[in-house]
C-alpha cells in the first residue's frame, strides 16, 4: 500500500518514474495525485459541431480534414491549426508550440475532441483541445462504446507522456493508496460540506459524475487558498514578533523642519497613511507595509517623511528604485524638496541637515567611492540606488528603514538582500503604483499591512485618453503631431512612446504575453525620432530616450527634459514608472496594443501631473472589435487603476500574477485563480486567521503540512540564490 509520501517507484515502473520526474519534477505519489485533470471527456454526450455555442465545454467525435503548422512572426513559436469535420460542419482547433501533435492528427484520423468553445476572428474554435484518437481500423461506434468508465479525465500532457498514460499511472496510484489522513480541520471541512482529502483526490481523478468532480475541485482549490493564507499569516506573525529599533516621531527635528517648508499641504489620504507609518515606526517590531497609490498620488513625499522620521532617531534610510532613470530622479526630487536640509556638513546647510546620496551600477569610481563612504559613515541619512545597493561593498552605519519603490519589479529575495545590511531588522515600506484588488494583495502581499492612497493632490487635472485607430483614421495621427506642436508653443512638453528601440527589438518582455500575430511594422524610437524631427515635429526640440543608451546620456537627457531644454521625448517604456515632469501634458503611445493595460495606465500617468490637463492618445493598428482594441477602449474609458488592474489580471496567467516562486509544476497553487476565487480566498483568510490565533499546534496534521510547505518555499529560495 502507498501513502502520499511514498516514492513513485512503489506504484509505477522505473521508466515511468523517470519520465514523471524529468517532465514534471514529480517524486512522490502525492505529487502525481496533485496532477489534476484539465477536463473530462464525456462519452455519450457528444455534440454536433453545427450546434456549438461559445463558452460551452464540449466533446465531439470528428475526423481530421486538414492540418497545417506555421511559424509566428510577432513572437517566438509556431501554431498548428487543425480543421475537423463531423459531417454537419467544420471546426478549427489550434495548438501553440505543439507541432508534435501533427503526427497524431493526420488527415482522415478520427478522434474524440474535448475543450471549451471560443471564437477567434469570428470563427468558432477550440484552443488546445484534449483528444483521444480512435484506433485505426476499428468500427468507430464500437470504439467509442468500448472505452470503459464514463468520465475520462484529460491531463496536461506531452509527447513523451500522453494523457491516457498519465491516467493509467494515477489509476495505479489510487489503487494502492491507503486512506489519506486529512489535514484540514474538521470544523472547516464541515462548514463548507467538503469531501475529505481522500475522497476529493479519488473523485477528481475518477468522478462518479461531474457534480462530485466539481465538489472535489472546490475542496482542493480551497486547500490551496487556505494553506497559502496560513503560510502568509504565520509569516506575518513571526515578523511581528521580531525585534526592531523603535523610531518614534520627535518634535523639533528634521521632519518638523521639512514639514514647515513643504510648498504644499498633504492630502487627507497622505496624512492618514503618514499616521499609519509613524505608528508602525514607533513600535519595537519591524514595520512591513505596502503603500499602494494611484499614479501621481504623491507616494514619494510620504516615503521621504518616513525616512526623515528615522533620521531623527539616528538611523538611515535606503530607497531602492527599479531603474537608473528613476533613481536619479528620486535623488533630484528629494534634494529639491529638502533644500538646505539636504546639505548636512556643508556651508549654509542647516544644523539638522542630512545628506542624500546615490549608488548605481554605472556611476564612475570616484563618485561611487564618495557615496559608499557617506553611507558607511552614516553622513548620508538617505541612500538612493538601483540593484547596485544590494552589492557587497555597500554598508550602512545604522540602516533603519528600507523603502522599495515600484515593488512589482523587485522580488522578496532582493528585499531580503537589503535587509541583511542592517544590524537589527529594519522597517520596510514597499510602494507600488499598480493598485491591485484586495484579494490579490492578500495573496501576493499577504504578509504585509496595506495602506492605500486613492485620491490625487488637489488641483490635479484629469487625464483624457483617446484611441487613434490609425488604419481607419490616418489623419488623426497628423492631428496628434499638430497638437503636440501647439502644446509646446504654449510652453508645455510631450512624450511619444514606442514599443521598440530599433526595428526588430523589444524593450520589454512584458509584451510576450500578448498573443496573436501581426506582420505590421511596429514603431521604434530609432526610426520614429528622426522621422518626426525631420517632418511633423520640425518646429520643436525632439530627443530619443531608451534603455540601451549609456546611463550618462539617459540622465542628461532626462535633466534636459526636466529643464525644458527638450520639448518632446521619443522614448520606450523606460519612462513608464515614476518619471515626474509636471510640465508634460501630452503623450502619444504608438502601437499601444503592444502594451499591457496596467502598463498603459502607468505610462499615461506621466502627463497631467501639473495643473494643466493631460491628454493621452493611444495609436493602434488593431481592428475594431478585436480584443486588443477593446483593451485600449477600456483604458480610455476609466482612470481607476483598481478597475484596470482587474482587466489586466484577467488576461495574465496566474504565474505572472503570483510571481515565479509560486507557480510551476511543483507549486502548491495549481487550481487557485486569484480573481475567479476571490470570495473563497477571503473565507480562507478568515479561517486561517482563526486557526493561527487559537494556535496551530492544536492541529498537528495541519501544522505538519504547513511546515512542509514552508520547507519547500525555503528550498526554492535557496535554489534561486
Ligand atoms: P507617485 O505616487 O506616482 O510616485 P509622486 O510622489 O511622484 O507620485 O507625486 C507626483 C507629484 O505630486 C510630485 O510632483 C509631487 O511633488 C506632487 N505632490 C505630492 N503630494 C502633493 C500634495 N499634497 N499637493 C500637491 N502636490 C503634491
Ligand atoms: Mg513614484
Main beta sheet: strand number and arrangement?
7 strands, parallel
The backbone outline, from C-alpha atoms, is globular
CATH architecture of the domain at 254-453: 3-Layer(aba) Sandwich
The CATH homologous superfamily of the domain at 254-453 is called P-loop containing nucleotide triphosphate hydrolases
Number of strands: 21
User: What class do helices, strands and sheet pairing give?
Assistant: alpha/beta
Percent in strands: 15-25%
Low-confidence stretches: 506-520, 659-666, 717-721
Task: Give the N-to-C terminal Cα separation.
Answer: 38 Å
Which molecules other than protein and nucleic acid are bound? Answer: adenosine-5'-diphosphate, magnesium ion
What layout of secondary structure does this protein have?
Layout (H helix, E strand, L loop, with lengths): L13 H11 L4 H5 L5 E4 L14 E15 L6 E8 L4 E7 L4 H4 L5 E11 L2 E5 L2 E4 L6 H7 L4 E4 L8 H14 L9 H7 L4 H9 L4 H32 L12 H8 L6 H14 L6 E6 L5 H13 L4 E5 L3 H15 L16 E5 L5 H13 L2 E6 L13 E6 L7 H8 L7 E6 L5 H7 L4 E5 L9 E7 L4 H16 L3 E5 L27 H9 L8 E4 L5 H12 L5 E4 L12 E6 L7 H8 L9 E7 L6 H11 L3 H11 L2 H5 L19 H17 L5 H21 L1
Helix pairs in contact: 7-8, 8-23, 9-11, 10-11, 12-18, 15-23
